[in-house]
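Instructor's aside before we start: the two examples that follow are unrelated to each other. I chose them only because their records fit on one page, so don't look for a connection. First example below.
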Amino acid sequence: MQAADACPCGSGEPFGRCCLPLHQGERHAATAEELMRSRFSAYAVGDLDYVWQTWHPRTRPAALTPGDVIWTGLQILDTVDGEAGDEHGEVEFQAYYRDGRERGTLHERSRFAVRARRWFYVDGDVFD
């Protein structure tokens, strides 16, 4: 993905002005939703290091392994708190993917928390 391409997170902004600076550590997400969007983009472009680094140390796995899923779109359904100055937030979303010839949707309500003045993904509830 090129910096001028549309960001996978669906913001409508170029990747180089939206999620790429977060992936490269030039800045940190200001809100839980911004972190959610940047994590989706990281999955979409295969940057699992960023996904791991933004996962809360208390709940993150020892390692992440790439899969065959191609992430194709993100829709934010709801946010609760998670703004600058908050300590916790929730983001409900639907993430669309392709796995071989199959298409699917991941519907989750994710929980986020601030640690050391940065937002981290904690965990989430997946809906069927």
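Example two begins here.
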Amino acid sequence: MPGKVADFLRKLELDAAERAAIDQGEKVRRGQGYTLRITAVPAVHRALLDRCQPLNDTAAIPAQRKARREYANRINALPEAANVRP
């Protein structure tokens, strides 16, 4: 998960599974920013992706929109069985 997305999500009220995934993530430095490596089931990733939907809005800065797009691409690239929502 890109750091800009993780920073945005940390400010939100998340449920227990989402908060645990964010809190237990491992920061990996990437150039000027960082990537947060989280281990969670695809359903949690989908829920986090849904929560960061406001980053698609024109009020978000371009870097946030790009970070959300990259995260969405990673989640959508998961095997088809993993993309099925419960």
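The longest helix spans residues 62-76.
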